[in-house]
Amino acid sequence: MKTEPYTRQMRERFTEASTLTSSNNDAILTQATDSTSGLRDNAEKASSRGQRTF
User: Fold this and answer.
1) Is the separation of the CB atoms in 31 and 24 below 8 Å?
2) Alpha-carbon gap, residue 29 to 34, rounded angstroms
3) With the CA atoms of 6, 7, 12 and 13 taken in that order, what torsion angle do they form, in degrees rounded to the nearest 10?
4) Where are stretches of biased composition, namely Basic and acidic residues (predicted)?
5) Cα(41)–Cα(39) distance, rounded to whole angstroms?
6) Residue 33 pLDDT greater than 60, yes or no
7) What distance in Å separates the CA atoms of residue 43 and residue 54, rounded to the nearest whole number?
């Protein structure tokens, strides 16, 4: 069957992406105590780029 290598490749790519996402979530959770300064930094960066922050 021709599609098998492609589906396997896509499956591997998606599992890679999900593991990356879960590790990012862990990093975000560990940084939650310092979230206020991070939010302020992000707001300043966004406003300097001309984006609206809420």
Assistant:
1) no
2) 10
3) 70
4) 1-15
5) 5
6) no
7) 9
State both tokens at 27: 């990093």
31-34 contacts, C-beta under 8 A, 24 or more apart: none
Q: Which amino acid is at 23?
A: S
Q: How much is the CA Rg of the chain, to the nearest whole Å?
A: 18
Tell me how far apart the alpha carbons of residues 12 and 18 are, in angstroms, rounded to a whole number: 10
Name every residue whose Cβ is closer than 8 Å to that of residue 53 and which is 6 or more positions away in sequence: 42, 43, 46, 47
Q: Supply the DSSP symbol for 34.
A: G
Identify the residue with better confidence: 51 or 42. Answer: 42
Q: How confident is the prediction for the chain on average, in pLDDT?
A: 64
Q: Which residue has the tokens 């560990």?
A: 30
